[in-house]
Specification:
Layout: H1 3-96, E1 97-101, E2 114-117
Antiparallel strand pairs: 1-2
């Protein structure tokens, strides 16, 4: 065997070894591409879920704000109703009481006023 044949065999052997290593690296790269693609899809889904959640949170926030306004209005209406009821009750008390007697004592000072409710017809 001459020098060129030995050299050619060594080159062929090195080429075969390099070819095997390159093939293994290509397989690894394909696996990494699949993994990267999977993570990319998961990331896209996470972004969509996050955006949907943000929209829902904003909608809930606006509903809470509306309900707060409604509660404030109802509280004010309740207060107004209580004032109106109190006024009606005071008015009814005025109309349903009759002063019957205002006796005076021997010293000339009036006794406590006796009041009786009027009988409603």
């Amino acid at each position: 065997m001459n020098f060129y044949q030995k050299f050619e065999r060594k080159i062929d052997s090195a080429n075969a070894s390099l070819y095997t290593e390159i093939r293994d690296l290509n397989k690894r790269l394909e696996e990494f591409e699949k993994i990267l693609s999977f993570f990319s899809e998961q990331y896209e889904q996470l972004i969509k879920i996050t955006q949907t959640t943000k929209k829902q949170v904003q909608q809930i926030g606006s509903k809470i704000e509306d309900q707060g306004k409604t509660i404030t209005e109802l509280t004010n209406n309740d207060y107004d109703n209580m004032v109106a009821i109190d006024e009606i009750q005071q008015y009814q008390r005025r109309d349903c009481l009759e002063i019957t007697v205002m006796p005076t004592l021997p010293n000339g000072k009036p006794k406590n006023i006796d009041m009786e409710p009027l009988e409603q017809p």
